[in-house]
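Question: Send over one sample?
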Amino acid sequence: MPITKADVLAVLNDPVLNKISFSVGAIVVNAEAFRIVARYIEAGDVQVVPGSGTVAVYDRGKNRIETPNRNPPLNFTDGAQLLHECVHAFSDINGLSGSALDDEVAGYLAQLTYAEIKNPTRPILASAARLRTASPMGRMVFAMQDTVRNYNLHNDRGFGAKISGADIFRLGQAVRAVPQYAGLKETTKTAAAGVSVVNGNQMQALREALTRGQRIGRRPAAPIARPMIF
């Protein structure tokens, strides 16, 4: 049995998401953003289809999430990687045609923040020796983990944090160093055309369009396994 729309919606409605709130430039990552993605999925304006790969992928051109080619249930690492793709879906729903690197930074920070909250672990410190032997993906993950901890994105102290421009740039360079993202430049745009509301409630979509990006306050991305060995 493939991973279904219901499995994806279960992740997007996880109460843990109420503990996450930060922004990367114009990209807002919080529970309300994920609930908006869930509403588009429920209406069928963002589709969920079985994919052929090992991880979830958001296809901007077709407005659909392709799920991993295996059977449920999803574990917390699967859920974290799926949320990464849902960050891209939310940017698309917003019609944001901003930096593709910023979009990846937001996705990876969401992925690692969710994983840390769902399965708290002792930090693996990025020592000089460990960084020398780490893969580009490993170095990028270390940089993201350090940012999650430095901004306290995984606890109440970091709720509503705004990632600084300097840190966004630094993390973007770490993303670019990973071979699968080597083609991205600082000027590369997401080319988001937006998601048309065909089956959903038009008035609800209008309200979201007017207020999205202002909900910071409370009230394919690669899979990252734990323990992490690079």
